[in-house]
Amino acid sequence: MRSPKDFFRPLAVGAPAPVREVPFRPSRMIHFFDPGNEKMAAKIPAIAPTVDVLLGNLEDAVAADRKEAARSGLVNIAKTTDFGDTQLWTRVNSLDSPWALDDLITLVTEIGDKLDVIMVPKVEGAEDIHYVDRLLAQLEAKARIERPILVHAILETATGVANVEEIAGASPRMQGISLGPADLAASRRMKTTRVGGGHPGYLVREDPNPESAAGEARATFQQDLWHYTIARMVDACAAHGILPYYGPFGDIRDTVACEDQFRNAFLLGCVGAWSLHPVQIEIAKRVFSPAPADVAWARKVIAAMGDGTGAVMIDGKMQDDATYKQCQVVAQLADALAARDPELADAYAAAEKE
Ligand SMILES: CC(=O)SCCNC(=O)CCNC(=O)[C@H](O)C(C)(C)COP(=O)(O)OP(=O)(O)OC[C@H]1O[C@@H](n2cnc3c(N)ncnc32)[C@H](O)[C@@H]1OP(=O)(O)O
Ligand SMILES: O=CC(=O)O
Ligand SMILES: [Mg+2]
């Protein structure tokens, strides 16, 4: 293990200095597209201003015989598109695949100055991050990249979940972690066949009422298959100063359940989710932006709390140092999002006047 004193040292001569704090840039939706799919690629210039992050996906969902087309498609799109202040990310192939090395070499040397974050799938432990960390430093030095490319891990194997804390803290490049419920379900041998979301069979049933006739219907309550993993991931990320995300929701037509899944993740601490289809962009934008009424309330508490210590009563609710801190989380997120999203800024300003 490296000495803590060396943690922020570049891993190659000529590589840029690692960041000391992960920049908080709005990333409510990480919009996936296949850069080798001409129809999808043609839509990217129009989609760019409507999303926080565009992600050129090279891994799963890109057929084996289309991997090279996807890689070169991404190089071309990055070189010819004006993304404005929308971030450009990529998801490279998994480290045990025949494509990962060429993905990293090509993308960093050709478009490393355009890429903000590289998402690494199926991360199992700190060793996977260390491998990517050193390789990126070498490639950044070679390509004379001036700011470090950050790394995002997908939590989608049982081993990865067991090691999530060490993954989160493996490198100053670590920007965040996404839940990958589809691969994780397979890795854990769960008996589902879905990409995220719930399952009607995973439930609790109310106790029988001794006064009712035998066989009388008893209410059931569907449970969240992902609560445990999201909560672990959020804690690991918060402890290491990086950002947690819900991943994909594969039932594109079920926009209601998608919104519920995203909102559970938001309330538990996630800052965004993946959008796989244009219809999911607005859902993520709505869910991962705090509601104007909540922001107005947070600002009211902050104003009433002065230096943030002591206790006051507002509308019948006790406020103290801990609610003040919660309100700061909401207000700071609102400020960061409003700076990027003028419509949201207007909605926040209007709610404060009410
Ligand atoms: C478990 C995981 O790893 S999840 C991450 C990997 N998976 C992905 O990245 C999937 C990305 N999304 C997709 O491939 C597609 O959205 C699919 C296959 C799910 C559905 O695609 P379609 O059947 O074409 O959907 P649909 O007909 O509703 O699409 C409407 C239009 O939106 C376009 N579109 C669909 N998805 C996207 C997208 N992600 N980005 C941009 N445009 C898109 C389609 O090309 C289509 O264009 P058209 O109107 O010019 O024909
Ligand atoms: O890559 C994502 C997943 O759910 O698997
Ligand atoms: Mg996966």
UniProtKB/TrEMBL annotation:
Domain named HpcH/HpaI aldolase/citrate lyase: residues: 32-194
Single GO MF descriptor: lyase activity
Assigned keywords, A-Z: Lyase, Magnesium, Metal-binding
Cofactor(s) annotated in UniProt: Mg(2+)
Gene3D superfamilies in the cross-refs: Phosphoenolpyruvate-binding domains
Record has Ribosomal protein as a keyword: no
One Pfam match: HpcH_HpaI
Family matches, as PANTHER family: CITRATE LYASE SUBUNIT BETA, LYASE BETA SUBUNIT, PUTATIVE (AFU_ORTHOLOGUE AFUA_4G13030)-RELATED
The name this protein goes by in its record: CoA ester lyase
